[in-house]
Design brief:
Structural class: mainly alpha
Number of helices: 2
Helix content: 55-70%
Distance between the termini: 33 Å
Strand content: under 5%
Number of domains: 1
Order of helices and strands: HH
Mean pLDDT: 87
Largest sheet: none
Number of strands: 0
Radius of gyration: 22 Å
Low-confidence stretches: none
């Protein structure tokens, strides 16, 4: 039979491991955010890229998917932080 001290130590170790893994996952997600697409031919660069787009017909909004992807990352990180503290 295991004693209570060992159960508490195992529980504390498991919680610490879970917190470490959660911190690593959140850090990875936050680091996985995308930058707006850049191309040497600025006609094809995303209009939201800091250097802009040469296509004046292109509206000033993301057309490379970075905003959508980064929004999903932000939402997932916020939900995880709310749920797991």
């Amino acid at each position: 039979m295991e004693n209570k001290s060992t159960n508490v130590e195992n529980s504390t170790t498991a919680q610490t491991d879970a917190n470490t893994v959660l911190a690593e996952v959140l850090s990875f997600l936050e680091g996985s955010k995308r930058k707006h697409y850049y191309c040497d031919d600025c006609w094809y660069t995303c209009p939201k890229h800091p250097e802009g787009c040469c296509n004046s017909e292109e509206p000033d909004r993301c057309n490379c998917g970075a905003d959508e992807y980064n929004g999903q990352v932000d939402e997932l990180v916020a939900r995880a932080r709310k749920h797991f503290g």
